[in-house]
Amino acid sequence: MKVLVWLLIRGCFCCGLFTLFFTKYCHGQTAEISLIKKELSYTKDSLKYIDLLNSLSKYYSFQALDSSLYYAMKAKTLAERKSYKKGLANAFYNYGVYYSEIPELYLAYKFMNEALDMFRSIGDKVGECRTYIYISLILGREDKAEQSLAYLDKAYEKSNSIKNDSLLSVIYTFQVNAKSFLQGNWLEQKNLVDMAISIAKKYKDWVALMNAEITLANLGFMNGMRKGKCLELLHSVDTRAQASGAVAFAGLANLGIANIYQQLQQTDSADFFYQKALALSDSGKMTAMQQSILKGALKNVTGKSGFEKELTKYTRMEMAMQERWELTSQKEGFSMLESTLKENELRVSSANDKGNKMWISFLAAASFCLLMSVFFLYRLFRQKHNFMKTQHLLIEELEMKNKVLQENNEFNKSLISIMAHDLRQPFSSIIMLDRTNAKDTMQKEHYLAMIKQMRITSEKSIQVMDGLLQWMKLQLLGIGYQPSPINLFDNINEAISFNADLIARKKIRIVNMVDCDMMVNAQQEMLLFINRNIINNAVKFSPLNGEISVMAKKTLHEIHLSVCDSGEGIPSNELANLFKNPSRNSKGAPAVLGAGIALFICKDMISKMNGKIWAENNLEGKGAIFTYSLSIPHEKTSLNTLLEINGPSSLN
Q1: Residue 11 region, left (φ>0) first, then alpha (ψ -120 to 50), else beta?
Q2: DSSP string covering 124-141, please?
Q3: Helix, strand or coil, per DSSP, at residue 69
Q4: What is the mean pLDDT of each run of 10 residues along the chain (652 residues)?
Q5: How does DSSP assign 18-39, residue by residue?
Q6: Could you tell me if 50 and 83 are in contact, meaning their C-beta atoms sit under 8 angstroms apart?
Q7: CB–CB of 132/154 below 8 Å?
């Protein structure tokens, strides 16, 4: 039963570890581990991050020792980098826990003593207290009960100045287990266990409570407590421990149940719970617990009929474990030597570093000053270079803006001249009619005809101004273009009517071959301005008795309108600049500039209406062809439209 008692001391350590760091009642280790991992993922505080790593290491000491060591190593590395003594002390403590379970007792003592020294240096009494407790556990495993109790007394003295009273429950439970080795008084021991249970319940410390209940059940059975009550306590601990993921406590509870059934000579029941305890200890890789369970399981089946298979199994397991212990002992020797060598290397390295630190500091300071000087000189150079570059860009931008302003000024002068000429014509006719007293000197029919012609001329001038005003709104005021469906046939006829006098004088035959129901997306006044100017140019450059044809072709999304004259065509050197701003290319007479500006405005209006305009010479005969494209108003493409555009082949 001695092995069982010191297994209970291991359980008491687990309780102390949790009580010191997680005094608030928890529902389970697995849930706590998940919460800590979640907090690790978003914490920004490096010191808190180290504390969380150490907490994970402590939790995993109940479930998986390899995971416990992994998080302890990470915490140690970061704590050394940040010079965080408390984090480093906790990492040393977790190292000691791991090496005591492998076991490599030299390294366990080494790391526990380093943790104890560091806790003392920072005044962490809780850390000192739990380190004393765990050192007493290691001493107890080596059957040094008196030394173990001495360390428990030190832990008890430290606990008097700690407000967390659940730690006292841990110490009481340890003392009971240690005194049981020395054949202490059972009533005194039971009083200590009862106090431990009472303190654990008061502070809702589930770990301390389970540990104290395991101790009460096992020692109570040995000292005459009722079997049923002992088994009930251990089954309750097993249920709660497995629900919370505390593998160590579940294993200890099942070991206690198996030992009771062994004492009662119920071999089948005892073997069942030994196997369950073995499975739990194996899942957590708890070597010391496995060895104790195997000893109990072998004792249970040795010399019992019908259990030869189990006896062989346990014997093989014990032999394999003995081999691992021997390899571990060899490894421990190497680890001790390796650790000592590393410490000596560190001392020598530290001594050499002290002599070099001053030179390194001096060189670092000199290098820093040199780098700062180079940096400031480079910065001044870059600032001057950027200033010169910015100044050059501003000058270029200013020259470009001046050039644009000059060109716009020339264009505006030409445009004003044209507008003034178009506005003066009807007003001049009215003034001339008034000054000559035409009403008194002319026949009534001639007078009325002249009045009608003046009205027509005035209406045409107003239409020209409307088109220009619409364009100027878009060009100068930034007013948005608002298209609407326009009947192209009617618009062309109106443009022809505008040029009727010139057409009649030159006896031009003009044919409008546009479909009467053809529609385009455009702005009425601007489209009329474009058509008037294109037709006016065609009439101007056609000979007497010439012919002009206006045609339109529909595609799937656009309509292409072409005006073909019968003149001499356009010189090839003028085609490229036909629609450009004449104020940039010519200093000619106002009439020449006027014609060029009109075409330039036509191109800009077409662009505003999302179309294109171009000119070319007629390759099949004389004359030039002016063409522009505009979009068709949105509508569903019908079968007739497809047939009209692509012909019957589109249906194949």
Answers
A1: alpha
A2: -HHHHHHHHHHHHHHHHH
A3: helix
A4: 46 41 46 85 91 88 81 93 93 90 82 92 88 84 78 80 70 73 73 85 82 86 86 90 82 89 89 89 75 83 84 84 66 49 54 71 86 88 88 87 72 63 62 62 70 68 64 59 90 90 91 94 88 91 93 93 92 84 51 61 87 89 90 65 49 43
A5: HHHH--S--S-HHHHHHHHHHH
A6: no
A7: yes
Predicted model pTM: 0.44
Indicate the residue type of 330. Q
Kindly state whether residues 492 and 638 are assigned to the same domain: yes
- β-pairing, 547-554 vs 509-512, is parallel
Q: Is residue 48 part of a domain?
A: no
Give SS3 for 173.
Answer: helix
Contact yes or no for 450/438 (Cβ under 8 A): yes
Q: Which residue has the tokens 């209940």?
A: 213
Report yes or no on 596 lying in a domain. no
- Can you give the residue range of the structural domain that contains 294? 247-343
Determine what percent of the chain falls in helix, strand and coil, rounding each to the nearest 5. 75, 5, 20
Residue with tokens 């571990």: 328
Q: What is d(CA 456, CA 447) in angstroms, rounded to the nearest whole number? A: 14
Of 309, 325, 343, which residue is a domain's last?
343
Question: How many domains is the chain built from?
Answer: 2
DSSP string, 558-622: EEEEEEE--S----HHHHTTTTS-HHHH----HHHHHHHHHHHHHHHHHHHTT-EEEEEE-TTSS
Contact between residue 608 and residue 474 where contact means Cβ atoms under 8 Å apart: yes
Q: How many CB atoms lie within 10 A of CB 259?
A: 26
Chosen domain end from 303, 327, 343 = 343
Nearest to 32 by CA among 63, 9, 69: 63
